[in-house]
Write a structure and sequence with these properties.
The chain is built from eight helices and 29 strands. It is 20% helix and 29% strand. It has a seven-stranded mixed beta sheet with strand order 1-19-21-22-18-14-17, with helices on both faces. The chain has a five-stranded mixed beta sheet with strand order 9-6-8-7-10. The longest helix has 19 residues. The protein is of the alpha/beta class. The protein is elongated, with a radius of gyration of 32 Å.
Amino acid sequence: MSSRAPQDTGHAAQRLWSVDEHLADVLAAIRPLEPIELQLLDAQGCVLVEDVTVPVALPPFDNSSMDGYAVRTADVQGASEEFPAVLTVIGDVAAGSGVLPTVGPGQTARIMTGAPLPPGAEAVVPVEWTDGGSGGGAAAGMTPASAAPEGAGGEVRVHRAAEARAHVRARGSDVQAGDLALAAGTVLGPPQIALLAAIGRGTVRVRPRPRVVVLSTGSELVQPGESLAAGTIYDSNSFALAAAARDAGAIAYRVGAVADDAETLRSTIEDQLIRADLLVTTGGVSVGAYDVVKEALTSVGRADEEADGGRMDFRKLAMQPGKPQGFGTIGPDHTPLLALPGNPVSSYVSFELFVRPAIRALMGLADVSRPSVRAVLEADKALGSPAGRRQFLRGKYDAQSGTVSPVGGSGSHLIAALAHADSLMVVPEDVTSVEPGAELEVVLLG
């Protein structure tokens, strides 16, 4: 079970909730997903639930960092182009070589990058410091073994001296056996998966990526690629929220727009519960006659409450945009559901403030919200904000100068401006005007 029912808030819809209260209520209902064992590539983007220690040193043996010749340092001491050291080549050492030749006085072995340092050798001289066995000047590279197997024999002239351990990667120079490779709580990206593979881990225990189902509602919505009829618009919210869910670390399933019919919406949600750790709807949560999310989910919540403790609350928040919000748990597994407003900017801002933290909490992460900084407002005029509301305005943040500039207006339908913003400027509830040069909290979206 991934969640519990939200707190009993009594007449939730009759009072104005703060942003912080609503977020706290959402997070209190979220429980991290149960850990599972996954293959490495399937674990990408997941969170480790256990410390991973190194079973064997990495690299597990001394090896060459260059293509060249494994030598004894005494044999190349004082070597120069005018007076090269002439050594007998006794064989090749390639990456993966098992049986290794022993390098004795006056001898050398051709060695490839990553190959183990053979017994007797103390250093590696790059092939560019030699004649490559050609008897001429400095070599540009080695002749492939398949084309010239005789290159593994004969003589080579070394033009420069080498100190002990030159161009040798020491055993355990990356990590030692018993070292902590990755700590519990680490999000597994490509470098972390590379490290796990390098130390021999084929599987790892993680919390899986949450499965988030996104539904948009509205009979006026048409899918991109189709023709618009009179009074219709393209469904952008479900695409934006599904993409945002993926960006947050979830596996997102987008359901095409559901018409303004409560029974259709109820049945669609019930069908989606089988593949959802979290449900997100957009639209239909205000007070209009066709706001069917509120109608459908209120009855679903009541039925669940009678059956097994689920419930839905629809609230008004002291914020702009995004005043109407819905939250609860539904179905036999108490799947959390967040019902967001339908205006594009309201929907996206609500996702960043409430849904993204819920997704990160399901993943078992401690830090669930976007980072924020303080920045100086750079604008032509003061920014107005309604009293008693926390306003979130789209902005462009300049890290070098520590400034932020508004992008577009405050309208909750202005999606074009949102596409050019990289941050949200936060105006507190008790502030009604922000003058240019004033300092603001800025939530970074990138």
